[in-house]
Amino acid sequence: MKKIKQPLYDYVVLDIETTGLKKERDEIIQVSAVKFKQDQELDYLDTLIKPVHKQISPFIENLTGISNSDVDNAPEITEIIPKLNDFIGDQPLIGHNVMFDLSFLKYNGLNLPKLEFVDTLDIAQAAQNQLKLPNTKLETLKNYFGIDNRSHNSLNDVKTTAVVYQKLRDAGYLQKPSRPKFRQWKSKDYFYDQFDNSLSKNEINKKRALFGNQLIDKLVVPENKSKLKDQIFVFTGDLKQLPREQAQKIVEGEGGIIKKSVVLKTDYVVVGIENPAVVVDGKSTKQRRAEELNATKGKNIQIITEEQFMNMIQ
Which of 174, 205, 244, 267 has the most CB atoms at less than 10 Å from its CB? Predict the structure, then answer.
């Protein structure tokens, strides 16, 4: 695969939606691709995908509008990859933050070793100062160019990306992205700020996942941030709406403290879905310890459900 910069007029624009951020653990739930010839729509491939091992969480359903019932009768990704291979063929590919999409598709069997591609995110970053854009999110570009499309549906995002590419290309912005000149050491938050200014919430999550971390400042509403600061949280069981690791990152990102076990200073125990094979009467050791400290030591450890935790941060 090779990134290219020359102007394109015949190409395929691609976008996918997924159950989460990691290709090894999460699954594709929508694939959309539109083929253009001389900038005119020629053909399209658009399908929902039924995940095999992963359910669509409420968080992803809210973001994409795709529910588990929507994909009940959809094909599996193994049926779609050969069709997508044939659909793209030898045409160059365009996408916004397209490396994320390609990483998922390659992991699931896409085999186009000679594929050439363009990332509109790169082009937008190069044009940002001249266009006086506050950031280079696809949503921002859509509004800047007056494109009327709903976001976070992959077919709509494909059509938006196509128009954005055409506008940027015709304005002469197909050039190497400018990069910041480092004249002094930057704080660790500098790089995360760059992602904040460049990507949408969904794209932020995608990018940060590639670096083994998550951006959480968009997930917690401002008035709830103080509820987490300096509070000690212990999680037990699996969560339904988001991975437990992500929930812990949210707490830490807002100044809270994560502990593996319940101690006297614990403020909250968040109870998820417990494994009935290892808990007694539906209560984990952590929950029992919190109840014991409340009863014998006069503590006030709050034992809350996942839903109550989500209400704290939203």
Answer: 205
Task: Decide: helix, strand or coil at residue 68.
Answer: coil
Taking the CA atoms of 285, 288, 293 and 294 in sequence, report the sign of the dihedral they define.
positive
Residues in the chain: 314
Instruction: Go through 282-292 and write b for each residue having 16 or more CB atoms within 10 A of its CB, e for each that does not.
Output: ebbebbebbbe
What's the token pair of residue 86? 């044939």
Distances, alpha carbon 101 to alpha carbons 25, 95, 124, in Å? 15, 8, 18
Establish whether domains 2-170 and 222-313 are of one fold. no
CATH architecture of structural domain 2-170: 2-Layer Sandwich (3.30)
Question: How many Cα atoms are found within 13 Å in the side-chain-facing hemisphere of 290?
Answer: 25
CA separation, residue 231 to residues 105, 224, 252, 285 (Å):
40, 12, 10, 21
3-state class (DSSP) for residue 18: strand
Domain-by-domain residue ranges, the chain?
Answer: 2-170, 222-313
219's tokens = 């997930």
Q: How far is CA 74 from CA 110, 183, 275, in A?
A: 19, 53, 30
| Predicted TM-score (pTM) above 0.85 | no
pLDDT in tens, 169-210: 999 998 654 444 444 444 444 455 555 555 555 555 555 444
